[in-house]
Amino acid sequence: MIPREKIYTALFSLVEPLGNGKPFKTVSREVIEVQTVPVGKQPVLFMDEAFEENTDSGLGLIGRKFTVFFHIGCTTEKGNAASTVLNPLIDAVELAVTQTGIDETQRLGLGDLILEAKPKGMAIKNLGNNSTDPLKRQAVCYLPVEVTFSF
User: Is residue 33 very low, low, confident or very high in pLDDT (cuts 50, 70, 90)?
Assistant: First the structure.
């Protein structure tokens, strides 16, 4: 069985290069409420380990599915649509996770045990007015990514 931490570390390594302002200022596995992050440290990307499911294929094989939520947050100036900033950030995370053009079995660097890593399920967006700065708007998306593999 592949240790959990190896899976999560490999998945995080796909999105970590999006930090240092390319396009995120803050990228972390530590999950905190997006609106509490100072405006100067946004946009943010946090990896939230949410669900782990073991499945039985009926052929004596056990499969595993992990669902991770990426918390993607940004602020915009009052009067600007937050979605115009948030949508490209979501696209950047999806592209990093799916690794277009790379053999699916090598996606997470764990050989042929990885079956798939892809956005799956309902992404939830909040384009609300809950920034700690009264002149800003806070936007957040919770993007589910499912990693499936067998052991």
Answer: very high
